[in-house]
């Protein structure tokens, strides 16, 4: 237990240390570079806002956000856009690396930048609204969502010309997408650059408007400061993946149940509490379908009941099915911006089912077994009276090769030589009653 606590304390210290500014990030001027990869989550929002604040504090020439995202929640996207628009430093969104994309909400973020750039073999667009639970949206709701998003997109693309505005509108209404060359031809982006050095060369000397003030960028020969995520942000980014959040939510309660069924070690309980807390944090940050949460809770109930049920195994099988269905339904995949992988959900459900079927079942069966060591093992044994038992006085009984002080269970005198059955043990004294096998 102490070793586990020391490990947790060390991990916490390392995570806090990861949040400290690096020597590069503290130096003044230059260009700050963020790497925003994956779905748009609260962690990415915090990371970009931290990067903007750092760039402003060190009076950077520009902040470059290397973006590769399938999209994400609209409200989080709006927060990022507001942060970029209101930044006091030029913000460049660079869709990178080759093969990456700025889909859905990523399109809005790219267009909100003071300079939009893409690497070759990247794509942008497909920003149509989708139902958070999947499936079709009613015509009325779709019209409302599209009109709001089109208005937002037109505001962002207006300064890029009519072609860019029309394409941005079609990206929402018709889910249109474009590669880097097409986006440049339409004016949706400003630059195509193969790598960061090429981007810096093309940015140099470009004039941009930052909060009503025209600024000329000087990006050649200046220091470039990468600003990676801190250890804490990386850790949170991992647990905010729906598959990981599901695993934490599944393991946490079941580890606690195992600890209650087989107490004494505390490790299972501590691990269970940690997993449960982290899983609940993830649920609070991600778009959740509560039908999936209900199925997960049902699975945990089925696992628990089956441990103590006489027909061990049937309910566990149903629990595995419920766990898989809950995992697939729990998170709103479209709003997250990518497809949730089925493999880890099925693997987790099957592994937990096997764990409860074999390990926990064995543990509970062990608890139900008659003790084989200690004084309790005497209960049910027979012995021979060596000194008569005359209540309230004690007698002597020979059992298991040892002489024990004995009292009568029903206050009935028992003579020497009779066979008795032990029905209780307290200290060095056994409680006995006459055995049915006494000879007449």
How would you explain this protein's 3D organization?
With 440 residues, the protein is of the alpha/beta class. The chain has three domains: 25-229, 2-enoyl-CoA Hydratase, Chain A, domain 1, CATH 3.90.226.10; 241-368, no CATH class; 375-434, Nucleic acid-binding proteins (OB fold (Dihydrolipoamide Acetyltransferase, E2P), Beta Barrel). It is 50% helix and 18% strand. The chain has 16 helices and 16 strands. The strands form four sheets. It has a six-stranded parallel β-sheet, with helices on both faces. The longest helix is centred in the last third of the chain and has 27 residues, at 342-368.
Q: What's the layout of helices and strands?
A:
Elements: H1 2-18, H2 23-26, E1 31-37, H3 42-57, E2 62-68, H4 74-85, E3 91-95, E4 101-103, H5 105-112, E5 115-118, E6 123-125, H6 139-157, H7 162-173, E7 177-179, H8 180-186, E8 191-192, H9 196-203, E9 207-210, E10 213-216, E11 224-226, H10 231-239, H11 242-261, H12 267-285, H13 290-308, H14 314-330, H15 333-336, H16 342-368, E12 382-387, E13 395-399, E14 402-408, E15 419-426, E16 429-434
Helix pairs in contact: 1-10, 3-4, 4-5, 6-7, 11-12, 11-13, 11-16, 13-14, 14-16
Q: Name the poorly predicted regions.
A: 1-11, 13-27, 132-136
Q: Identify the overall geometry.
A: elongated
The SS-based structural class is alpha/beta
CATH class of the largest domain, anyone? Alpha Beta
- The gyration radius over C-alpha positions equals 34 Å
| Percent of sequence in beta strands | 15-25%
Question: Helix tally?
Answer: 16
Fill in the CATH topology of the largest domain. 2-enoyl-CoA Hydratase, Chain A, domain 1
Number of strands: 16
Major β-sheet, in short?
A: 6 strands, parallel
How helical, in percent, are the residues?
40-55%
* Average pLDDT, all residues: 84
- In total, the number of domains comes to 3
Question: Biggest sheet: strands side by side, in what order?
Answer: 8-5-3-2-1-11
CATH H-level superfamily of the largest domain: 2-enoyl-CoA Hydratase, Chain A, domain 1
Distance between the termini: 59 Å
CATH architecture of the largest domain: Alpha-Beta Complex
